[in-house]
Amino acid sequence: MATNSSVRAVLITGATGGIGKAAAIALADKGFHIYAGVRTATPELDVNGITQIRIDVTDTDSIAAAVAAVTKRQDGAGLYALINNAGVLVQGPVELVPPAELRRQFQVNVAGPVQMIQAFLPLLREGGGRIINISAASARVSPPFLGPIGASKAALESFSDSLRVELAPWGIPVSVIQPGAMRTEIFAKSGAAAQESLAQTDPRRVALYERQFVALDKAMAGQRFAPVDVVVGVIRAAVVARSPKAYYTAGSDARQAVWLSRLSPRLRDRLVARVLGVSGIQPTR
After folding, report:
1. What's the pTM?
2. Domain locations in the chain?
3. Could you tell me which residues come within 8 angstroms of residue 100 by beta carbon, excluding any fewer than 6 positions away?
4. Residues facing residue 10 across a β-bridge
5. Most C-beta atoms within 10 A of its C-beta, which of 16, 21, 69, 214?
6. For the purposes of burial, counting CB atoms within 10 Å of the CB of 34, is it exposed (0-12), middle (13-18) or buried (19 or more)?
7. How do the pLDDT tens digits run along the chain, 285 residues long?
8. Contact of 198 with 206, CB cutoff 8 Å
9. How many helices (H) and strands (E) does the chain have?
10. Contact 123/35 with Cβ under 8 angstroms?
């Protein structure tokens, strides 16, 4: 069944997660028709104004099927916005991150959004739409043991910068949103996955980082996570803005990361190490 062409349609990936689910529901409440990209059906999204679409952003066939489904439902109306929210968080010392996990980090966080943009640009042109890519504060300042996620989000931002100029002739804005630490399940999932990877690694190599692990665990115990509503409000602002900004931040730690990124690398490294409790730690041999 085609949707009402007078209702602006938004596609958001990763809609089963904390940010994606909350953003889908909030935008539907604002009168948008939401195509919620999910890997599996999600009962909480069975509400008016939301159509669940099966999408695996790492699978080109899955993306092609989603394009066909949305094109049919929109019936010539196109898309008003594509929000690339699907992502994973891989963490751990760079030396110990399994190659397969590193590839997965970039497949989901970089190749996935780019493939979504490539596939849905015809619908965005048709609907006078915009692109919103969800990044992370770690793209600006990547703390120790968060190199994979920081690098993947920095790559996504680099693609966004190119796209902003490339798509300007069609009036398709490209925005990046940098959330800080939000109260979602992604951190718990990532921590569990990191522990599983370390359990399969040579314990002598893991032991080299024992003191850093202890210091970071202590520092992270005091980490304050912002409610998801903080980033949802920023997503909503980027969707409805007449002239959306190139970059948005969400959360106080994201704003701090912007400030830190402007410092010299030497000073920034010292501040990050001090805040995380790893300053002056002697190597374990």
Report:
1. 0.91
2. 9-199+225-262
3. none
4. 34, 81
5. 21
6. buried
7. 455 557 899 999 999 988 999 999 999 999 999 999 999 999 999 999 999 999 999 999 999 999 999 999 999 999 999 999 999 999 899 999 999 999 999 999 999 999 999 999 999 999 999 999 999 999 999 989 999 999 999 999 999 999 999 999 999 999 999 998 866 555 555 556 557 777 677 888 888 888 888 888 888 777 777 889 999 999 999 999 999 999 999 988 899 999 999 999 999 999 999 988 888 887 776
8. yes
9. 11, 7
10. no
Tokens of 9: 């349609």
Token match 């115990």: residue?
Answer: 221
For domain 9-199+225-262, give the CATH superfamily.
Answer: NAD(P)-binding Rossmann-like Domain (3.40.50.720)
Q: Specify whether the CB–CB gap between 230 and 250 falls below 8 A.
A: yes
**What's the one-letter identity of residue 254?**
A
Q: For residue 136, give the amino acid letter.
A: A
Q: Tally Cβ neighbours within 10 Å of residue 170.
A: 11
